[in-house]
Amino acid sequence: MAQKKRGGRKRQKIPAGKLQVRIVAACHLREVTPKEIADQEGLRVAAVSYHFRLLEKEGWIHVSRTEPVRGGRRHYYVADRFKVITDREFEAMTEQERREVSEGALLDFLEVCREAHKEGTLDAQPDSHLSQTPMGLDKQGWTEIQSELDRVLERTLEIKAESDMRRRKSGEKPIPTVVALAGFEGPASIATGLKT
User: Fold this and answer.
1) Prediction pTM value
2) Which of 34, 39, 178, 182 is the most exposed place for a label (fewest CB within 10 A)?
3) Domain containing 108: what range?
4) Contacts of 84 by beta carbon, 8 Å cutoff, 6+ apart
């Protein structure tokens, strides 16, 4: 990847389309500022702000709030949220609230699976995927799995944004797709069949 130095900091060259996909994907998960993305990608804030404004004009994202900062205003952007609760939001909940949220998500997912099975779409695509892998992990393994699931979620949202942008140009009809990620502590009953 080509790099150039400006003001003592390394600057990366990143394709505009790829940058816009990353911005939209991040905005689906949380409030995002141009500075945050600029720092993350090693780019100038002005250049990244241009892409935020362009995406806002095209209807991909919108300003959720502003705050004063050093004589100017900092803009926070979001995209329409998916049914995703961030780690920070989940940690702030009481145990009862977490149970209710998880139960609601699980029941919703099971209903989607039931309808897909009933309509024959669950296995309609030859490369569809459905798996469950009970395993015994140490604390480090648990942490690594959760980090990997977070990474896959972010990449999934990037792929969705890329697809949306292509479809907006092509007019291609979408394939209704369900992607579910889960990584949770299983019941004690599954431990009996696990190798130690």
Assistant:
1) 0.66
2) 182
3) 84-130
4) 28, 29, 153
